[in-house]
């Protein structure tokens, strides 16, 4: 099913990549693509307000150095008008909010979203605890591979870091389908190496990428 970022053909390619990867393993792969992991309105509003106050104080000092007086009520009104205008811009242009907050906060919110998706989509409930989430949050430029306990004890984190690096590299070039296909291939390779298919293997997770 076509979504906001990927068309039907791209979704089908990703589904086929997951199906082919899972044919060689008892592990399960699920993919989630998020536009953003938080609204960021409150933190963006806070940092914007602090910036406006700081700049207005600098402007007041400069005016004072040049012997230019500004009545206090005008100064306060100018600050209030600037803050109100900034908040209106943040309200109607949500895409700029993420650029006003620190990277550490963006990454923390994206990581929290990845964990919510992992639990909310029952990736932790596979029979052998061999579920893997490939997660990408676009506006934060954040990717993550979350593996359940059965896999995390076997596959080193360095391998997942390589997978995430490839995921973000392709996504940064606008190749979202290729980004997921490359990550699926790398995850599938590790799963096939450590968790070969079993006789009673079942497809426990959806092979369709979820856009949220």
UniProtKB/TrEMBL annotation:
Q: Which PANTHER family match?
A: BLL7265 PROTEIN (PTHR30373:SF8), UPF0603 PROTEIN YGCG (PTHR30373)
Q: Where does the signal peptide begin and end?
A: none
Q: What is this protein called?
A: TPM domain-containing protein
Sequence ranges assigned to domain TPM in this UniProt record: 96-188
Question: Does this entry carry the keyword Transcription regulation?
Answer: no
| Pfam families noted in UniProt | TPM_phosphatase (PF04536)
Alphabetized, the UniProt keywords read: Membrane, Transmembrane, Transmembrane helix
Organism this protein belongs to: Nitratireductor basaltis
> Keyword Transmembrane helix on this protein?
yes
| Membrane spanning residue stretches | 40-66, 72-90
